[in-house]
Amino acid sequence: MSEVIHIENFEIIDRLGQGGMATVWKARQSSLDRLVAIKILAPSFATDPADIARFRDEARAAGRLKHPGIVQVYDANFTDGSYYFVMEMVDGYTIGEWIRRKGRLGETDALAVAESAIAALNYAWTNFGIIHCDIKPENVMIDADGTVKIADLGLARAIGAMHIRESEQEVLGTPAYMSPEQVMGRTDLDCRADIYAMGSMLYHMVTGHPLFAGEGDEDEIMRRQLAATVPSPCQEAPELSRRFTHLLTRMLAKEPKDRPRDWKAVLECIRCVRTNRPLPGEAPHPGASTIFLVATESESAADLIVPDRGWYGTRLVFVILLLLTGGLAAWWFTQGKPADRKAPRPLLRKLPVSVALPAKPTPPQPAPVARHQVTPAEQEAMAQVARVLLRDGVETASRQAAEIAAQHAAWGADSDFAALQKLLVQARAAEQAALDTFTADKGKPFALSLRKQSVSGTIGDMAEGRVHLVVPGNDEQTFTLDDLGVGERLRRLSCAGDGSAGAAILEAVWACRAHDSASARATLSSIPPPSGPIFLRVIDEPQP
Question: How many domains does the chain have?
Answer without folding.
Answer: 3
